Amino acid sequence: MVEEKFPEEEELVLCTVEQIMGTTVFVKLDNYNKTGVISTSEVAPGRIRNIRDYVIPNKKIVCKVLRIDQAKGQIDLSLRRVSQKDARKIIDGYNQEKAALTILRLASKNPEEAVLEIKKKYENVYAFLEKARENDEIIKDFFNKDETEKLSKLIREKIKAKKFEAKKKISLSTIASNGISIIKKALAVKDAKVTYLGAPFYLVSVESKDYKDANKKLENALLEICKKIKEAGGKVEVIEK
């Protein structure tokens, strides 16, 4: 939904590059009915030889709002002050919502009204589809019988079950002659995935549909690993991350 108000300073906003004029980039703020500008110094750190190596017309980018002059209608943005992690999170959210809207259009001839009602109750359409995957009864609140059946089937086919991941980095060591065997046995725990990071470090991770359940299973896995390695005379350290 496009808003008429201005964004907040320091807010991260999804933008579409509209044009490049000299050393200035003009973008459309996708969730606001506004245009913003990025100066060359805010495109990327260091010297920029070719600005089109970073921005090209119609490209989706994530920017940070630096300054707003509401009287002039001017919004100054920065591309370089957005981390790759934050940018990826927002772009992924955009792609998920785009896919969710496509699914609704496949199930309903007139999805626009349903979208407005869905957004009154749920954060976005994708969040609604995730909930509907767990309980398809909620679909009936917004669609007729035929649409509900179509949408329920599409959700099962196209929406992955939501999972939470809990993980910890650990350090394992032993001076025993059969140390490799000891460590392998210690790391053989139920419900956990163990990734070798380079001696003596390992990453223990657990996935679950529930955040608390994921953390509980991780805690149990770590307790089991610690018990096994200590009983064999080794050492273990859980590294907080």
Question: How is this structure best described in words?
Answer:
The chain has helices at residues 84-107, 111-121, 125-134, 145-158, 179-187, 211-231; strands at 12-21, 24-29, 34-39, 60-69, 74-78, 164-173, 193-198, 201-208, 235-239. The chain is α+β, with helices and mostly antiparallel strands. The chain folds into 3 domains: 12-81, Nucleic acid-binding proteins (OB fold (Dihydrolipoamide Acetyltransferase, E2P)); 86-158; 164-239, EIF_2_alpha (Alpha-Beta Plaits, 2-Layer Sandwich). The chain has a 5-stranded mixed beta barrel. Strand 1 and strand 2 form a beta hairpin. Helix 1 packs antiparallel against helix 4 (145-158) and helix 5 runs antiparallel to helix 6 (211-231).
SS-based class: alpha+beta
State the CATH architecture of the largest domain: 2-Layer Sandwich
The level of helicity is 25-40%
Question: In order across it, which strands form the biggest sheet?
Answer: 1-2-3-5-4
CATH topology of the largest domain: Alpha-Beta Plaits
Low-confidence stretches: none
Please identify the top-level CATH class of the largest domain.
Answer: Alpha Beta
**Count, helices:** 6
Report the count of strand segments. Answer: 9
Shape: flat
**How confident overall, as mean pLDDT?**
92
Biggest sheet details: 5 strands, mixed, barrel
Order of SSEs: EEEEEHHHHEHEEHE
- What gap, in angstroms, lies between the N and C termini? 36 Å
The whole-angstrom Rg is 25 Å
Q: Identify the CATH homologous superfamily of the largest domain.
A: EIF_2_alpha
Number of folding domains? 3
Percent strand equals: 25-35%
